Every structure is written in C-alpha cells, then in structure tokens.
C-alpha cells in the first residue's frame, strides 16, 4: 500500500471522517465515473494514460476491500494527527520565537534608554554649566573687579551655602548686585554694588567658616621711605593681618548665628 497516496482523492472523493462514511456503492460509482475519464481509449495522446489508469484501479481495489480500507482510514487518521501535532509545535515554536524576539527588542530598548538618559542628563548639565559660565563672564566683563569678592567654604562645616544664603550674609555689608555660585566646588563670586561695600568685608580665613578674598586686590604703590626697615614691615604686617582676621571672625560669626 502506497502510504503517500490519498486513495479517496484519486477517485475525487472526500477523505478523512467524511470518506470513512462512504458506502461501497458510492465508491464504485465514483470509480466508474473516473475510469471513463482516464481510460486509455479516451486519452490516446496521453503518454501516462496507462499509469494513471493503473493508479485509479489500485485505489479502487483498496477502498472496496473492507480490511484494506479500514487500514487505510487508520493510516489517514495517524497522518492527520501527526500534521496537527506538527502544526501545534510550529505554532508554539513561532510564538516562542516571537516572544523571545519581543523580549530581546524590549531589553535592547531598555538598554538604549538606560544609556540615553544619563547621556542626556550629562549634556543638560554641561549646557546649564556653560550657560551659567557665559552669564558669569558677561557679568564680570561689565563690572569693576574691585567690587568682586571670591568666597569659598569647606565641606566639614556641614553647610552648602546657597546663592540666597550668601546674598543674605553679604547684604549686611552693603548692597549685593550678583551672586555667582560655582557648580563644581564650594565657592562663589559675590559682586557688591561698590568697592566701598566690598572693602567693608574683611579678607581672610574666618575661623574655617568662609574664606573671602578680593577677586582683584587693590594694592596702591607705596613710596620708598628712608625710615622703613624690612624687618619692621614684616612685623607690622603680621600684627595687622592678625587684627583683620580677628575682626572678620567676630563680624561674620555674628552674622551666621
């Protein structure tokens, strides 16, 4: 028995469950009709006429025999189940591949997003810093450097001075025009309204609280004096520096309280 041939189809009959219900009379009727069509006398120019007619006769003999037909129906049933299982497996395989592909795309998208967000954040920070630096340069280029003070503080104090906090502190000495706070370290530039107001802020290290120095210290030239002694100048400068630091510590400590 040729297991690759659907003998029902050869006779132009339905196979499967519908074919299994056909009567012997129905099968014979279908054979006679098909035989008239494929008989060699009807197809003199067909080189495959004998072969085709022989296949038709073989299929008919299998289907008209009860045992052969039952065996063939069982064979068809097994083949249908196999095709169905393969179809289900192919469907599951396609779904697995589709799910895997979807997960890979989602993972790639997440990875791309995880890389994009820090990159965009870094770019935004750089843009803001550049904008602030440009603004700071514009301010410094338009003001008298003599009224600009450099301010810095240490981390151990536990306080990160904001622009508003610095403005409040230095407003005690006079009007504050600008506060330019650095985004990289604990420092800032404070622009007072005049050099007089800037001079009111004593310069030096204020008991590890705030270090305030002029951006461009004013040092008028001193004429040489025949009575000036180098050692005497060093001593006087040391005493003046200590006095200035003491006064500054006292004043700014009072403001911060």
Automatic annotation (TrEMBL):
Domain J: 6-76
Transmembrane segments: none
Pfam families xrefs: DnaJ (PF00226), RRM_1 (PF00076)
Region (Disordered): 33-54, 82-117
Signal peptide start-end: none
Protein origin, superkingdom: Eukaryota
Biased composition (Basic and acidic residues): 34-49, 96-117
SMART domains in the cross-refs: DnaJ (SM00271)
MF GO annotations: RNA binding
Protein name, as recorded: J domain-containing protein
Organism encoding this protein: Anisodus tanguticus
Taxonomic lineage of the native organism: Eukaryota, Viridiplantae, Streptophyta, Embryophyta, Tracheophyta
